[in-house]
Amino acid sequence: MLKDGSNNPSRPCPCENPSTAFCCAVMLSVLFLFSAALAQDPTKVEPTHYKLAFENEYVQVVNVHYGPHEKSNLHAHMGGVVVVLTAGHLRFTDEHGKTQEVFAKPGEPRWFPPFKHKVENLGDTSYTAIYIGIKSKHLASEAELKSIAGDG
Predict the structure, then answer these.
(1) I want to staple 61 with a disulfide (CB 3.0 to 4.6 A). Which of 54, 68, 124, 137 is the partner?
(2) How far is it, in rounded angstroms, from Cα 119 to Cα 100?
(3) Residue 151: its pLDDT value, please?
C-alpha cells in the first residue's frame, strides 16, 4: 500500500512492457534451471556421502562414503567412472523408481553415463568409492562410445 492509501503506483509496472516482461521471464527461468542443477550436485545435496576431492575444467573427483544402511536423496552425477575402494551391497533407485541391486567389489571400475539416482547401502559395513566425473560432454560421449565398442 502506498502513502496515500491506494495500491496504484504513480509509475507503471515495468512488467507491463512486453519486452521487459519477457526479459524478466527469461532471467527467472535461467536462475531456476541453474539452481535446480546445483541442487542435484551430490556434493551439495548429499555432503555427508559425497566430498569434493579435486576439480578442474575437465573432471570432478568425489570421495564417496556410505555408512551401514545409510540412504541418500535423489541427486545427479555427470558421466564418469566410479572406482570401488571397499566392498558394498547397494540399491540404486533411478529418477523413475526403477531399482537395481549391486554387489561392488574393491578395485572394480565402472563407467556410468550421466544419471540421477538415490542410493541405499544395504550392507552392515561402510562402502567407499571414488567417482571421477568428466565435465566435457564431448569427452564423456567419446568415452562412452569407446566403452561400448570395447576399446577402453
Answers:
(1) 54
(2) 10
(3) 55
CATH architecture of 42-149: Sandwich (2.60)
The residue ranking higher by pLDDT, 58 or 28, is: 58
CA-to-CA distance for 85 and 127, rounded, in angstroms? 8
**145's grid cell:** 562410445
DSSP-derived letter for residue 15 is G
Listed in sequence order, the DSSP H helices in the chain are 18-39, 42-45, 137-149
Say if CB 105 and CB 87 are below 8 A apart: yes
* Residue whose cell numbers read 540412504: 71
Contact between 98 and 116 under an 8 Å Cβ cutoff? The reply is no
> What is the C-alpha separation between 122 and 94, in angstroms, rounded?
16
Residue 16 — φ and ψ, nearest 5°?
A: -75, -20
Rounded CA separation 26/72 (Å): 32
Q: Where does the pLDDT of residue 11 fall: very low under 50, low under 70, confident under 90, or very high at 90 and above?
A: low
CA distance 86 to 107: 8
Q: Which cell is 61 given?
A: 573427483
Predicted pLDDT at 17: 59
State whether the Cα torsion 72-78-84-89 is positive or negative: positive
